[in-house]
Each structure stands twice: as C-alpha cells, then as structure tokens.
Predict the structure.
Amino acid sequence: MTENAPLSKADTQWFTHDRFGMFIHWGLYSMPARHEWVRNMESIPDEKYQIYFDLFNPDLFQPREWAKAAREAGMRYFIITVKHHEGFCLWDTQYTDFKITNTPFGRDALKEIVDAFRAEGLRVGFYYSLLDWHHPDFTVDKCHPLRNLPDREALNQGRDMRRYAKYMRDQVTELLTNYGKVDILWFDFSYKPKPGSPDEHWGKGHPERSSWDGKGREDWESEKMAKLVRSLQPGIILNNRLDLPGEGDIVTPEQYTPDAPLVDEAGRPVVWEGCHTFSGSWGYFRDEMTWKSGKQCIDLLINHVSRNGNVLMNVGPTSRGYLDARAMERLADYARWMKYNSRSIYGCGAAPLEFPEPRDCRYTYNPETRRLYLHLMNWPYKHILLPKMAGKIRYAQFLHDGSEVLFRENSKEVNAALHAQCPEGDVALELPVLQPPQETPVIEIFLQ
Ligand code: GLC
C-alpha cells in the first residue's frame, strides 16, 4: 500500500438491493451462555475465563446448516464476530495465542464458515471488536472487566494502546488478505464521551475524565485503519463505529426502528442497517426468554425496508456449534414468509411521498419495476382505503398467491359500496373477511 493511493468507494448497490443479512455472535461466551458481555458484567479475571478457552469444543459445528438456514430465510449476506470484546479469535491468526486453533476444537472455524456461506451464495462480512479485554496492551477503562480492581491504575502501567492499534491492523490485514473477497467490515465500537456530553449511556466515569472514560479514534488510530481497509479490499463496505465522522459507508442503529428514512446532518439520505436480536442478547443466552414472535420479526424487516433500511438479524450459536430450536424457528418463520413475499423486500425501499401510507400499513416500492407493495400489518375488515390513489392503479393482487384484488376508485361508487363517506381521490381495495395465511399479507400494486 502506498500512502497516497486513491481509495475505492464502497459498493453499496448490492447492499441496498439485498436488504437482509444474518449477524452471528459466536465466541467463548457461548459457554457461560449468559450474555456476550458476561466477562464484563461479572468482572471475571483472565484466570477464571480461561476455563472456557481450555474446554471450547463445538462438536456439533456444521456451518453449512447455519448457511442453509440463512439462505432459506432470505438472507443475502452474513456478518460474523471474528473477534468480540472478549478478544478470542475465531481464525488462525499469527498475532495471538488466544485463538480457536489452540482450543480442543483446533480448527479455523472462520474458514469453514466463510466457505459454507459462500457456497450458499451469501456475501461475507466480518465484525471485528475494537474493544479487547484479553489483550495485554489494551488499557483498563470503565468498560473493562478489571475496572473494579483497587489497583486498576497500576494495571495500566506498561499497557500501550499504540501497540494494540498495530495489533488490530495486523489482524485486519490477515482477515482481509486470507479469506478472499470480504464485502463488509463491521467495527465495534467507539465510546469516547464527546466534550460536554452527559455520557448517559456509560455513566459518569472517572471524575477527571481521562482516557479511563472511553476510547475513540485516537486510541484505535482510526484514520490509518480506514485507509488500510480500503486499500486491501476495494469496494468493501465499512460501518460507522470507528469514530471517524463522515468515514463510514453505513449507519448502524441498534435494536431500534426509525420512523422515517435516516438522513445525515445535511438532510441527505444515508445507507443504513438496523441490527437486531431475536431475544435480548447477541451471544447465546440459555435463560433469556424475551424472544420476539415470528410476526414481530417479519414486521421489523418490512418496517426497515419501508424506511430505506436493511436488517441484520442476529443468531447466537450454542457452544456445541448449532443454532438452537428457538433461533431455527424464527429463521423458519422468515423462510415461510420470504418464500412468497420477498419481491416486496429485494430491490425495494421507501415509497415516493405521493403514496401516503394507509393506517396500520407500510409501503415498499421497487423503482425499477415501479411496483408498490402494501403490507397490511393489522388485518382490516373487508376494505382498506388507500389515500390519494385514484387514477394511479392499473392492477392489484395478493403477492403470496397472485390472486386479483378488486378495487373501486370512483368516490361515488366507493361511497355506495361502503355505505359511508370517503374522501375524494381515495381508492377502496376489496379484501376477504379472513386474513390470508400470511403473518403479514402483501398486496402488489401495478401502477398506471
Ligand atoms: C453492542 C454490544 C455488542 C454487540 C453489538 C452489536 O455494541 O457491545 O455486544 O456485539 O452491540 O451491534
């Protein structure tokens, strides 16, 4: 790499077309099975965490099964935690011994995962944690498992974040050199409080606001990192968690569904991806019970696409290496729905403003085919009024079975049929009394 080589622009076209990806959080934390932050939450020292490393042996690891379930669910790309905050590496890196090839399992799981997902036609993404609670140069801060030790300041003697930043670049170089084309690199995360900000999320920190409080672009040497990434993998999509304003290609809200398409500070639309869990944890969490229903998961995808967003839906494989029944069920819910309705997702985004959404509905729109997709989240009784649609519809049908949906658009006719007053210019679709057997039915509208 030469210092001034022109940097490629990210290729986000496939990304906004494909809309749906699988997030995979897998590491040693799948053994305690009580959150991927367990080391932090329970302040577990290295010596105690070591037991998971010594015993890690996913004997039922079949990445082809993960990949098949993802493809059938309609997911078109995946992003795997190659290293999470615990510092454990899923690949055969030469820069640390804290890696999967040194566990009883002994194999480069990342290689097998990448091969399996590629074989199913999915694109490849790596999640790389900026935090590292195992690395000896990563300074103890307020997010670190050792933060509560009385001698924590002493612990930082001799730790050197410059060396850690170099370690990250070395590892990223391995990852972006040895695994073929990588489509997405997803760093996580920066947490330096902005000057003057109340820093609600991370509490008050230390009174003197030192680097103890958090870490950001200077700690990661983010500029160097971004350059390195783009020079190694032209076209790669880089997320926005390096704390480099304007640098990321995608905005990544977490466990949150925006009401309107996201925009940047100047009001321009941005490419964005919401990441979500099926339940309340990213890593496998045996006793966590807040699993979303199949319908919630499907509606979450519709909501994102209708606001120009992607969904990155997470699974946390068990320590034996399989996706548990709850995760498989949710993926199957997606599969059942996507099999018949994916045309309202792929290639689609927010509908133009000339099509105002009816109550309890979401539109998506495919600008290439000029088709509008009406998602009925809450099944109405016999009719639905589409505001301001008179004269705009050529034909309408259910997407799942291609059966015609009749409509009236002359307001006199509409009023006579409904025995009601309807606003001029609206269209009434005539619906069956019973909801078709779809979690959320979709009507495909061919525009004039
Ligand atoms: C948060 C958490 C992390 C998870 C990530 C996914 O940043 O620290 O555990 O991997 O969200 O976006």
About this structure: The pocket of alpha-D-glucopyranose is lined by residues 25, 36-37, 188-189, 254, 275, 282 (CB under 6 Å).
